[in-house]
Every structure is written in C-alpha cells, then in structure tokens.
C-alpha cells in the first residue's frame, strides 16, 4: 500500500510539473525561434507602365545588392509567387533590428538603390513588422 501511494504521488507530481511547464511555455508569449526580434520590411510595388523588364530586374537585383552593401539587412526575398490587389510585385528585406531599419532610412545604401528603383516604380505600400 505504501508503495502504491508513493507511486501515485510521484505520478501526480510529474503530471503537475508537466502541466506547469507547458503553461509557462505558453504564458511567456512568443517562442524566440518562431517569433524573432528582427524586422521585416514588406514592400508591395506597381511598376510604371513604361518601365522596361531591364529596369524592373535592375530594381529587384538592387534589393539583393542592398543585403551585401548594408550591414543591417540580413536577408531579402524578391520572387513574388502570388499578388493580390493593385500591386503586381512585392519584395521583403529582413533587418537585424528596429534600429537597423531606422538607420537604413536615408542611408547611402538606400539612396544608391533608389537611383534604379524610383525610375521604374509607379507606387508602393510598405509594412514594417516585428514581434
């Protein structure tokens, strides 16, 4: 009987510990691996009617060049596989932090890229997203 009671107490303690750990995991908010602190800069774009394929390609290639020339950008995406609404293209830049995004605004790297981007761009909408 003593052994059975001891086993039941152990099982109960393990069950409570598991429940407690599970609750703590979900209580803490976001899993840092699934919800990183980096910032994604999502831009939807429509190109000017007279923009050539070469101009559009240069603008999108420039997004990749930014990742090499500006230290605060960690990754970029430029291949739009689906677009909704009045924009035909989108691209994404991932910044190390909110500060890296703030420092990018008006930077030499941004100004250099704008030389190829603005002549082809008709309009864009931007979303900056983080956790």
From TrEMBL:
Keywords: Signal. Residues 1-23 form the signal peptide. It comes from the Bacteria. Transmembrane segments: none annotated. Pfam families: Dabb. PROSITE patterns: S_R_A_B_BARREL. Residues 39-129 form the Stress-response A/B barrel domain. This is Dabb family protein. It comes from Actomonas aquatica.
């Amino acid at each position: 009987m003593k052994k059975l009671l001891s086993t039941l107490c152990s099982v109960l303690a393990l069950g409570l510990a598991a429940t407690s750990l599970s609750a703590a995991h979900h209580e803490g908010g976001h899993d840092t691996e699934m919800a990183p602190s980096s910032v994604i800069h999502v831009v939807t774009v429509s190109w000017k009617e007279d923009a050539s394929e070469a101009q559009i390609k240069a603008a999108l290639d420039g997004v990749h060049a930014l990742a090499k020339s500006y230290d605060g950008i960690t990754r970029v995406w430029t291949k739009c596989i689906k677009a909704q609404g009045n924009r035909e293209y989108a691209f994404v830049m991932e910044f190390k932090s909110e500060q890296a995004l703030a420092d990018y605004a008006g930077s030499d790297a941004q100004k250099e890229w704008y030389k190829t981007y603005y002549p082809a761009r008709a309009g864009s909408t931007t979303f900056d997203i983080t956790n």
